[in-house]
């Protein structure tokens, strides 16, 4: 297999200096190009080289007009149409150190699209250090690459983010379930269709570049959690402690009906309305305080949120109480969990960074790029492992017949992965991702073709046991006749000398 | 996987169903279990208690119950299907419940029981799987990272021979007897008339009864189950391919399912006005015609049908052959000159 062991990821970056922010110690006058390479080693044999192609230039008049806006958010919105919108590329605008565009104490503002505003730091070296940090945040870091290639990294060395994220797949199925264990007391009504159309669809549309998504929903009655919550007298509420949470999922999963879904990985989002006798129910974190979102999630599975119904004002209210679920609040939590399940977290940031919230779209453009980088690298790694192991299998068992379509899938996979690596080397993230997706589809189809089953092992003693009873009886008369013929020929040769 | 069929192999089905029950009790849902059984015990005509499979004598515990979900039953339990499930080379029309949809974070438990010998395991009295094939299948799984860790338990005669050839990492194996020894059965029940369980599985199940989803018992305890005094055969195990120390491996890592969970600490903020949200009020139910079943069986037509005319067929080969024989015998005895009287 000619798949390269070294993958080069090229990130095109433009750094635009606004007037008053140019550092004094530039090596050459603007505009100029610079290239930096960094090697990310995942394990002994696999490494990824990141190659940053930076163009340093001054801002154009339109950009300067946009940067004259009052707040960073407006500036970001105004700069968006002026940028290079190809995926994987980044633009950074350097503003003067004393600029009021960025709030006090903030030196980097990352926008919703693919640009950032950076405060000048005096010398070029300080600026470059800051730019390096921003670039890594917005494209990929050593940790995200290790997460993408997580099957080559021993488990103990992965960060929690890495262990959480979903594997790259061609599609995902999202299931929203409403669990009502007490229909006699609560008649719960949720407008899931409306919520999906208004809140979930924009996010999935943005993610549609990454994979196909399908959404379904269901309502389950009399589905209880497997754990009995504890009553807490001080807060007069019921509490679920952190160490009992892992046991909640299994009894519910048996009833979710996920076996009827498609072959794509399923993400389950459950909304649990506690029984009247166990209301209100709060989830405790490890310090004992109730969690604000009242929700928890499990990596590669989905999330559960507990929705407490306000106790009715009058005790004589007729049961069942009609409950209208506030879908916006629920979707805020579910979409946050969806982001976390995909590995997009905004946790470990330096204090001087300010990230713009992506709003209803759910994720910023650069976060989508982040996913695309990770998934492309993961796909390429998967394809190379699959094809190598397929080659080893075919070497080992020589008499497997390879059908024509399996062979053509293999050729297609090799061509696609080579194209993906080439596109990555040129910095075209979108094309690289599409090529890597094709490569994965072809290689999986070739590897998992049902005709490649190797029921062909015959141990030597079995071969003897089968063939000897067949051939030995047949061979006896043949061998004896041959012996007789040989003996007769030899006798005939001798006889002329005997007879005179 | 239960690899035997026929009534006298009742104990293998009871073994498998008991392990299935334990695993479900400890939390693994049916969607994560692939159960392969010949399934000919509960409705067998020789079963004095139909629809039951007992695992203790005096009919204490019915392991068949009402919620057994068998994925491969009867003649579908073949070596080919078993290897297809393991390696994933399944025809695209196979439903999700018959597939092993594991990934690189899944721990897999494989329990096999039946009749075996030195290096092979008999499948349904008609074919065998060898230890080399099994080892190759596991290697294929490892190449595609279809498992994180794998526990292989086998309860057959000479079971240890089946795990001799494994060479893929992260596999731990347990067997009920060494090469050259037979695994013996445990309790016959006079009411049912067959042996109900095998010894090794019986004691493993006694051990598993003590385990609950949060217990911290480790694998070393499982290795001590069923010493020679109780089991007559010597159980064996193999841990050299496993990376962790068995002392640190919990039983529930394989037999139960304890997920890693994280608290969701923050929610995103959605702009409610931006989303053109209109609450649709449910429409009143329109009155429709009462529903009725479609005509399934044209009963009127069947009752008044006339019997069908049967087509005429020439006499079959047997009759022709018989007449040819009679005629030949006749002419042999009396000579050919009588032929002119026939024609």
From TrEMBL, chain A:
Segments passing through the bilayer: 464-486
A Pfam family it matches: PIG-S
Pathway: Glycolipid biosynthesis; glycosylphosphatidylinositol-anchor biosynthesis
BP GO terms, sorted: attachment of GPI anchor to protein; GPI anchor biosynthetic process
Signal peptide: none
Record keywords: Endoplasmic reticulum, Glycoprotein, GPI-anchor biosynthesis, Membrane, Transmembrane, Transmembrane helix
Membrane topology: Multi-pass membrane protein
Any Gene Ontology CC annotation: GPI-anchor transamidase complex
Locations listed in the record: Endoplasmic reticulum membrane
Family: Belongs to the PIGS family.
Entry protein name: PIGS transamidase
Species: Xiphorhynchus elegans
Automatic annotation (TrEMBL), chain B:
Entry GO terms, CC: GPI-anchor transamidase complex
Cited InterPro entries: GPI_transamidase, Peptidase_C13
Keywords in alphabetical order: GPI-anchor biosynthesis, Membrane, Signal, Transmembrane, Transmembrane helix
Keyword NADP: no
Enzyme active site: 115, 157 (nucleophile)
Transmembrane domains' residue ranges: 312-331
Pathway(s) per entry: Glycolipid biosynthesis; glycosylphosphatidylinositol-anchor biosynthesis
GO biological process: one example: GPI anchor biosynthetic process
GO MF, any single term: GPI-anchor transamidase activity
Keyword Transmembrane helix in annotation: yes
Membership in a protein family: Belongs to the peptidase C13 family.
Alphabetized PANTHER family for the sequence: GPI-ANCHOR TRANSAMIDASE (PTHR48067)
Subunit structure: Heteropentamer. Part of the GPI-anchor transamidase complex, consisting of PIGK, PIGT, PIGS, PIGU and GAA1. Interacts with GPAA1. Interacts with PIGT; this interaction, via a disulfide link, stabilizes the expression of GAA1 and PIGK and links them to PIGS.
Listed name of the protein: GPI-anchor transamidase
Provenance organism: Xiphorhynchus elegans
Lineage, top ranks: Eukaryota, Metazoa, Chordata, Craniata, Vertebrata
């Amino acid at each position: 297999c000619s798949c390269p062991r070294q993958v080069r990821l090229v990130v095109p970056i433009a750094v635009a200096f606004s007037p008053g922010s140019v550092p004094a110690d530039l090596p050459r006058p603007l505009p100029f190009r610079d290239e930096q390479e960094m090697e990310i080693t995942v394990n002994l044999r696999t490494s990824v080289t990141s190659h940053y192609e930076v163009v340093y230039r001054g801002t154009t008049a339109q950009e300067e007009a946009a940067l004259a806006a009052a707040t960073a958010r407006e500036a970001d919105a105004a700069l968006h149409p002026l940028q290079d919108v190809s995926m994987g590329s980044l633009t950074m605008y350097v503003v003067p150190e004393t600029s009021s565009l960025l709030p006090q104490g903030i030196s980097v503002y990352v926008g919703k699209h693919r640009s950032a505003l950076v405060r000048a730091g005096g010398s070029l070296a300080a600026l470059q250090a800051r730019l390096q940090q921003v670039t890594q945040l917005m494209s990929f870091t050593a940790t995200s690459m290790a997460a993408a290639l997580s099957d080559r990294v021993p488990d103990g060395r992965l960060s929690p983010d890495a262990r959480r994220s979903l594997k790259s797949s061609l599609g995902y199925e999202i299931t929203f379930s409403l669990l009502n264990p007490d229909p006699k007391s609560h008649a719960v009504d949720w407008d899931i269709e409306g919520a999906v159309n208004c809140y979930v669809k924009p996010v999935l549309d943005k993610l549609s570049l990454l994979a196909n998504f399908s959404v379904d929903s269901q309502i389950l009655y009399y589905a209880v959690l497997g754990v009995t919550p504890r009553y807490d007298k001080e807060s007069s509420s019921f509490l679920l402690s952190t160490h009992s949470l892992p046991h909640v999922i299994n009894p519910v999963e048996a009833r979710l009906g996920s076996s009827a879904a498609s072959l794509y990985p399923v993400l389950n989002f459950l909304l649990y309305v506690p029984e009247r006798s166990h209301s209100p129910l709060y989830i405790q974190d490890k310090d004992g305080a109730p969690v604000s979102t009242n929700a928890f999630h499990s990596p590669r599975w989905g999330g559960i949120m507990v929705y407490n119904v306000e106790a009715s004002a009058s005790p004589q209210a007729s049961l069942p109480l009609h409950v209208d679920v506030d879908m916006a609040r629920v979707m805020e939590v579910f979409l946050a969990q969806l982001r976390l399940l995909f590995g997009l977290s905004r946790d470990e940031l330096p204090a001087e960074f300010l990230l713009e919230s992506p709003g209803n779209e759910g994720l910023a453009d650069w976060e989508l790029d982040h996913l695309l980088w990770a998934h492309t690298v993961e796909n390429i790694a998967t394809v190379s492992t699959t094809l190598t192991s397929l080659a080893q299998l075919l070497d080992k068992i020589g008499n497997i017949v390879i059908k024509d379509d399996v062979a053509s899938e293999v050729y297609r996979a090799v061509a696609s992965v080579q194209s993906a690596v080439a596109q990555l080397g040129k910095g075209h993230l979108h094309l690289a991702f599409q090529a890597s997706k094709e490569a994965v589809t072809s290689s999986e189809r070739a590897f998992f073709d049902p005709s490649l089953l190797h029921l062909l092992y015959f141990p030597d003693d079995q071969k003897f046991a089968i063939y000897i009873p067949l051939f030995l009886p047949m061979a006896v008369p043949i061998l004896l006749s041959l012996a007789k013929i040989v003996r007769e020929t030899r006798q005939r040769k001798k006889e002329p000398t005997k007879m005179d | 996987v239960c690899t035997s069929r026929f009534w006298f192999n009742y104990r293998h089905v009871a073994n498998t169903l008991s392990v299935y029950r334990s695993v479900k009790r400890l939390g693994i849902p049916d969607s994560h279990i692939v159960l392969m059984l010949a399934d000919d015990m509960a409705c067998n005509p020789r079963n004095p208690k139909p629809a039951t499979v007992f695992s203790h004598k005096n009919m204490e515990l019915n392991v068949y119950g009402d919620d057994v979900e068998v994925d491969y039953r009867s003649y579908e339990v073949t070596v080919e299907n078993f290897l297809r499930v393991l390696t994933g080379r399944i025809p695209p029309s196979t439903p999700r419940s018959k597939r092993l949809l594991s990934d690189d974070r899944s721990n897999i438990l494989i329990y096999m029981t039946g009749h075996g010998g030195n290096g092979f395991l008999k499948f349904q009295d008609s074919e065998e799987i060898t230890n080399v094939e099994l080892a190759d299948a596991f290697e294929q799984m490892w190449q595609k990272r279809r498992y994180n860790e794998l526990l292989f338990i086998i309860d057959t005669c000479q079971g240890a021979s089946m795990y001799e050839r494994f060479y893929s990492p992260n596999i731990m194996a347990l067997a009920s007897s060494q090469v050259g020894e037979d695994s013996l059965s445990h309790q016959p029940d006079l009411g049912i008339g067959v042996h109900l369980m095998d010894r090794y599985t019986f004691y493993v199940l006694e051990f598993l009864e003590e385990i609950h989803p949060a217990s911290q018992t480790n694998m070393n305890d499982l290795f001590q189950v069923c010493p020679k005094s109780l089991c007559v055969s010597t159980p064996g195990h193999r841990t050299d391919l496993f990376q962790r120390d068995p002392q640190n491996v919990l039983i529930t890592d394989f037999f139960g399912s304890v997920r890693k969970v994280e608290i969701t600490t923050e929610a995103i903020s959605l702009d409610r006005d931006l989303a053109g949200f209109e609450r649709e009020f449910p429409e009143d139910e329109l009155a429709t015609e009462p529903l009725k079943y479609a005509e399934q069986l044209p009963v009127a037509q069947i009752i008044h049908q006339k019997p069908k005319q049967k087509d005429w067929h020439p006499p079959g080969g047997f009759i022709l052959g018989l007449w040819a024989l009679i005629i030949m015998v006749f002419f042999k005895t009396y000579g050919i000159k009588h032929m002119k009287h026939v024609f």
